[in-house]
Amino acid sequence: MKTSRLVSIIVIASMALGIGVARPIQAEEIAIGTASRAGVYFQVGQAICRLLNAETAQHGVVCKALPTDGSIDNLRQIRAAKRQLGIVQSDWQYHAVNGTGTFEAAGPDTDLRALFSVHGESFTVVARRDAGIESFDDLKGKRVNIGNPGSGQRATLEVLMAAKGWDKNVFSLANELSASEQSLALCHDRVQAMVYVVGHPNASVAQAVNLCDAFIVPVTGPVVDRLLADNPYYARTQVPGGIYKGNPKPVSTFGVKATVVASTRLSPDTAYLLVKTVFENLDDFKKQHPAFANLETADMIKDGLSAPLHDGALRYYREKGWL
Questions:
Q1: Neighbours of 66 (CB within 10 A)
Q2: For residue 53, which phi and psi values (nearest 5 degrees)?
Q3: Domain extent listing, the chain
C-alpha cells in the first residue's frame, strides 16, 4: 500500500472517531471604525490592529481598521450593532452617552463604553494666503470646506457656528468634501479655507501648506471662551509652531481628545485583550505616528472619557493598580 494512501486512510478513520485530528479554530474578527485614510484616526486604528495581529496565533483575534465617515458615523454604527469599536472625538462621545446634540432624537446610548483616549485634536482652520482670512470670523462670505456629513469635524464646526448664530449660508460656498479630498480642493482654489479637527502633525494639513502656501488661522474670541466654559470636553489647544512649512509660530485654538469606544456587546475578554496589548506595548504604539509621541498612561485612562469604562478595560486597569 502506498504511503500517501495509508495516511489518507488514517486521517479519515481518525476523523470518523473524532480523535487525533486538530480542528481549525475560527478566529474572532473585530473591526475598528476610524475616519478618512488621510487622518490620524485611521493611524490609531492601524496601530491598534498591528499590535493585536502580531500575536493572533496566541489569542485568536484578528483586527481590521476600517475607513469611515468619522466620529458620528462610528457612534451610530456601534449603536446599531454594525461595528464593534470606533475612534471618536471626546465631545461626540459625551453627546452620544448623554443623548444630547446630534444624538438628542436617538436618546442616550446606554450601551456605549470607553476604552481609553489617545492624542489631543485641535480645531484647525487652514486658509489660502490670498483669501484675506486672518480669523475665524473672516470665513463669512468665503468658499469653505465644512467637512462631510457624519464626520466629527463637521459636527464640531456646526456647534461653533450655532454659538455664533451662523448657518452654512454665511459662506459663499459650503463644500462637503472628506478629509482626503480637501487639501487639493484648497490648492486648486475650489475652496479658500478648510476646517479639520485633527491631531498634529497631519498629512492633509502638510499637503495644503506645502503645495499651495496655506497657513493656519487662529480660532479665539469671546464665543470660543464661552464654549470652553460651558462644555468640559473642550480645552484650549495650540497647533505647534514649526511643524508645517511657513507656519513658524504656535497658533491658538481649542480642541478635543480622540477616544476609543465600544459597545457592551464587545466581550469583556476581548476588550481586556485589546487594552492590555496597547498598554503593554505603549512605547511601540507611540512610534506609529508623531501625534502619539507624548501619550501618558495616566491621561489615557481618564481624559475625554464620558462613557463608563468597558468591563474588560476596567478589569485590566484595576489589575495594574491604576484605578
A1: 17
A2: -70, -20
A3: 29-120+258-319, 122-256
- Residue indicated by cell numbers 463669512: 140
Is 29-120+258-319 a CATH 3.40.190.10 domain? Answer: yes
The DSSP H or E segment spanning 75 is helix 71-79
Tens of pLDDT, residue by residue, the chain (323 residues): 444 444 444 344 434 444 443 333 567 999 999 999 988 999 999 999 999 999 999 999 999 999 999 999 999 999 999 999 999 999 999 999 999 999 999 999 999 999 999 999 999 999 999 999 999 999 999 999 999 998 988 999 999 999 999 999 999 999 999 888 999 999 999 999 999 999 999 988 999 999 998 999 999 999 999 999 999 899 899 999 999 999 999 999 999 999 999 999 999 999 999 999 999 999 999 999 999 988 999 999 999 999 999 999 999 999 999 99
d(CA 2, CA 205): 67
Q: What would the DSSP string read from start to end of 172-222?
A: SEEE---HHHHHHHHHTTS-SEEEEEE-SS-HHHHHHHHHH--EEEP--SH
pTM: 0.81
By the 8 A CB rule, do 135 and 218 touch? yes
